[in-house]
Design goal:
about 240 residues, alpha+beta, seven-stranded mixed beta sheet, five-stranded antiparallel beta sheet, 6 helices, 12 strands
């Protein structure tokens, strides 16, 4: 029994040391910054909503960029922005891009749906579109663009405590989100908001003295972090709490 307790104690000690090593590797791995440029005043009256439309979702690796499928990504970013906005300003209501097109456009617009501020502004000249907008209480459309890039692979060395260390690979991941706020009632672009997040995902191999342990993946959810920050900024912008 004494040997067993010694073995369990050793496992706990090694686990704690490795946790501190991984914690050191993870510390400060993701940073976020936001910026807003207000052009016109905004307001959200009781019952008014804003919609989220994804214009672009681009991923770049080693200089090779490609557009991803917008449909699924739009639902994810819509939910992220809506949840963050409602936590920042309770009662602020949002709808996804698919729901916006169903409510506001119906069957009136065929082919490629509008996804840019210019296309939305052009639609505001259509009487039927304006009538649908008024009936649905949709006030704003947040047109979102997302670009995520990953730099080349780098090797790293991390030092822990009491003989723990680790080696691994990492790369820099950066996500840039921009949101143009279109006021459907006033037929104008109210402003531009930006959010950027960077981090270093990778793979770390912990070592205790000379004994290697299973590799630990290091994550940097830059898109989620930037989206969460942008959602809070959008809520403050629409409710004029950013001034």
């Amino acid at each position: 029994m004494g040997h067993w307790n010694l073995w369990v104690g050793w496992i706990r000690l090694v686990g704690g040391l490795c946790a501190s090593l991984v914690g050191a590797a993870l510390s400060g791995c993701t940073t976020v910054a936001t910026y807003s440029d207000r052009r016109f005043p905004t307001e959200t009256l009781l019952g008014e909503k804003f919609a989220v439309v994804l214009q672009q979702h681009e991923e770049c690796r080693a200089g090779d960029c490609r557009d991803t499928s917008i449909g699924e990504a739009e639902n994810e970013f819509s939910a992220c922005l809506a949840n963050a906005a409602s936590r920042e300003v309770p009662g602020l209501m949002a709808v996804a891009g698919t729901e916006f097109r169903r409510l506001a456009l119906g069957e009136a617009v065929g082919g490629q749906p509008p996804r840019t501020p210019a296309e939305l502004m052009q639609l505001l000249h259509d009487t039927e579109f304006r009538q649908r907008i008024n009936a649905t209480r949709l006030r704003y459309v947040v047109v979102l663009s997302v670009v995520t890039s990953e730099a080349s692979l780098e090797q790293r060395f991390s030092r822990g405590h009491y003989g723990t260390w680790g080696i691994g690979n990492e790369w820099k991941r950066t996500s840039k989100l921009s949101a143009t706020v279109v006021d459907l009632k006033e037929a104008r672009e109210s402003g531009l908001l930006l959010a950027g997040s960077s981090g270093k995902p990778g793979l770390l191999l912990p070592v205790v003295l000379v004994v290697p342990l299973p590799p630990v993946p290091l994550f940097a959810a830059t898109e989620s972090a930037a989206c969460e920050s942008l959602g809070r900024a959008v809520a403050r912008f629409l409710s004029q709490r950013d001034t």
